[in-house]
Amino acid sequence: MEGFWRQLAREEIPAGLRAEVLAHISKDATSEGTADAAIAPSIFACVHRVREEEVSALVPHANNIVILGWIDRIAELHGAHAGAARETVARDGRMWFVARHEIDYLGESFVGDELVIATWIEKLGRTSLTRATVIAKRPDGANGVAAVSARSTILVRASSRWAFVDLTTRRPAAIPEDVRRALIDE
Known about the structure:
Number of domains: 1
């Protein structure tokens, strides 16, 4: 993994962020009746420190397009961690295509901010999945990843629908069972 991203072990995922995920899943389950509680513990998270080149020139906060890139990057890292790296699925003539991103920008991040970026699978269909992502900033003055708690500032909540596509036909393809298991079991 590149030097600007550090994967968190499951036990390093801050309690406040886990609570945010569980609250999000509970809300979906009650409003739609579709969330799968068995998926809830399968959170993949990394720490990322905001770099100078990631902020806008006119307003010195993380650029919205960069944030979209972080959402894509955490999905890529999660897939690789699960044994379904993009290079691997491409060799098999398949690839993940984004069908939809929905992003709620709730706060700003600045150069030097340490962020916890977490993702998990909310829904897993035959040919597509819905991935949730949360980006949180640790409280000012707190030290280390464990300091992200209930006092954390959630900066971004996103939901992305990814289609698994056959690269020859450009049509949806069934997500292989081993990939399905790896993404939700880790």
